[in-house]
Amino acid sequence: MFEPITADLYRIPIPVPLPLKYVNCYLLRADHGWVVIDTGMRYGPAEQTWLETFERLGIEWSQIKQIIVTHYHPDHYGMAGWMAERSGASVWMSPTEIQSVQRAWFQPLPEAADRLADFFELHGMPNDLNRQIWQHTMDASQYVDPKPVLHPLVMDQPLQLGQRSWQLLHAPGHADGQLCLYDAADQLLIVADHVLADITPNISLWPEAKRDPLADYLASLNEFAALDVRLALAGHRKPIVAFRERCHEIAQHHDQRLDLMQEYARTGKTAFEVCEFAFGVSTLSAHQLRFAITETLAHLVYLEGQGRLRREQRARQIIFLDQH
Questions:
Q1: Cβ atoms of 311 and 297 closer than 8 Å
Q2: Residue 28: its pLDDT value, please?
Q3: Fewest CB within 10 A of the end CB: N or C in the chain?
């Protein structure tokens, strides 16, 4: 149900209707009440888990004073409005992620789904698979309502919560404005989806997001590896003890992926063809396929930025190929 990390901090695995099964949310005791860090997706089992958690810990809704959301993805943001309505708590995000919320969840969904489908068609996605992803995009809105009023965190100032002074760290890549919370005195890091223990975070290129997310991610990962961290609390799976080593492992994973994709694309391939090669698509759900092709694109655009591949547009499709 929940796991005490320290005397003032709990990890709450909240069920999500995704292959990952759970998202790790956190409850932090502060002087003025409790702070929730990430919320889960808005659906029945998640609501029930929060209700049972509060009951077992003896927490009243009125004691929830603040909700901090690390990034806009529905498994982290989705229940913030539901919680805010029940508790009266204020909801806080980084300024960049507030823009991401506006882009992802406040635009008319059919238009957003159409733009994404056009983007995927340009990169070689077959129509039948593209239609499945279109429907999946349309269905996602049910997991983020109601939508809360969002307040911007001041990223360059410490955030005092209870006995802890947290640095708010910008952690781009998985999401443009993802934030992490670092207590240097305790060498404790709430790392969201920036670094995960036994899977690699998804780094994706989306039509309206930043141009080279993998470059942003690798630079940030290198900065995070320099932190003194005895324990990193991730958004999924287990906490990370050997944090610096895990950062290096993930960087090496991307180096290997980049080499693999560059070699395969040399003779001219669409992103979908490279995605088929790197991930396989026959066993992927629409949810997984959407992330597989956007992660493939992040790698291809990075290779393009490094001068290792170039792009050509042929008819209505973009081809990546060798520079020579």
A1: no
A2: 97
A3: C
Q: Which residues contact 266 (CB under 8 A, 6 or more apart)?
A: 321, 322
Strands (E), the chain: 3-6, 9-15, 22-30, 33-37, 64-68, 90-93, 150-152, 159-161, 164-170, 179-183, 188-192, 231-234, 310-314, 317-321
Burial 78-115 (b: 16+ CB within 10 A, else e): bbbbbbbebbebebbbbebbbbbbebbbeeeeeebbee
How many Cβ atoms from other residues are within 10 Å of residue 210's Cβ?
15
Give the 3-state secondary structure of 198-246.
CCCCCCCCCCCCCCCHHHHHHHHHHHHHCCCCCEEEECCCCCECCHHHH
| pLDDT for res 18 | 86
Bridge partner list, 253: none
pLDDT score at 15: 97
d(CA 71, CA 74): 9
Please list the ranges in the chain whose pLDDT falls under 70. Answer: none
Q: Is the pTM of this model over 0.90?
A: yes
Contact of 217 with 261, CB cutoff 8 Å? no
Do 16 and 73 contact (CB within 8 A), yes or no?
A: no
CA distances from 45 to 16, 37, 75 (A): 8, 18, 13
Token code pair at residue 253:
């994973």
